[in-house]
Specification:
The chain has about 375 residues and is mainly α. It is built from 16 helices and three strands. It has helices at about 5-10, 15-35, 45-65, 70-75, 75-90, 110-130, 145-160, 160-180, 185-195, 195-205, 205-215, 225-240, 250-255, 265-300, 300-325, 345-365; strands at about 95, 100-105, 110. It has a three-stranded antiparallel sheet with strand order 1-2-3, with helices on one face. A hairpin with a 2-residue loop joins strand 1 (about 95) and strand 2. The longest helix is centred in the last third of the chain and has 34 residues, at about 265-300.
Amino acid sequence: MMGFDRRLVEHFDWLLFCLTVGLLGLGLLGLYSATYDGSPQASPQFIRQLIWAAVGFCGMGLAFAIDYRRLEQWAYLLYGATLCLLILVPLIGSFGGGARRWIYVGMFSLQPAEFMKIGLLLVLARWYHRVVPPGGYGIRDLFAPAVFFSAPALLVLWQPNLGTTITLGLLFLTLTFTAGLRLQSLSILALAGGSILPFIWTYLKPYQQQRVLSFLYPDIDPLGAGYHMIQSKMTVGSGMLWGKGFLLGTQNRLDFLPEKHTDFIFAVFAEEWGFVGALGLLVLYCALLIRLLVIALRARERFGLLLTVGVAGIIFWQIVINTGMNVGALPVVGVPLPLLSYGGSSLLTTMVAIGLALNVSTRRLFF
């Protein structure tokens, strides 16, 4: 029977772990405030998030415990499993909020589109690790990675879930650029991306089109499609420099802000803690991302580098899109803020992704 390898503790990346725990703690604090109704008891959403946080630590521990080089061997299997879950969503998934995205398992709902971030990350990192053409990747070389991305992206867009589709696309681009792309291929991809925008526009649901139009023309429907963005900007601005204090945000307490525990949790945080608090939150995120990039640069082989860059990409793009939504710089597309927004599948996915980065960081000294 094999004994426990003490090097896992000796070389554990406590900085990355502590940054994760700190951000998770702020997320639970923000969620408690966003769902606070004046009663001494915590809201059901807060209790469920606590349970998901516990599950997330288990997922992080599992992702850390299994040697990531073994996960490379299982990449296609894990990708296929998450793809099967996506295929099941239209068949047995529950309908809510104008979309069919969740599969209920007992008291909890799972969102397979979130888990696909990990599946796509693993399969792309494996492929780019094992297939390295001289001179960089040309368009023909990208056929297989494009298929890996397109299959789940179309299924997720069909739900419809535009935010996760965009995140998967940005993950694909991040790993492709990191792996090495020819300049000519980059130009062709840019032209191809521009050419499919009209198709994507016609495929969007009417409410999604209205959200984009309300971003371009904020006053076109201030009580309808533009309401979320207008109220979010007012909430962020009302926090001013130092904020109104914990549980004292008026836009939040008086329910002017919709989806305040999910898409607009950043606005709740900014109203209560002000510009200083919001800036501090972003500094913590920057520290987390910088640590992930340091781990990537120190990785001993290409798969570990690509895996960690992918984790940083997933977190970075979600931060950019979510905070952009909250301050009116980007359209509202429904992307959660990592470790802060309410949502079990999103929290579990983020913590598993960080577990993979911890895996790479710790085992780089094992070679």
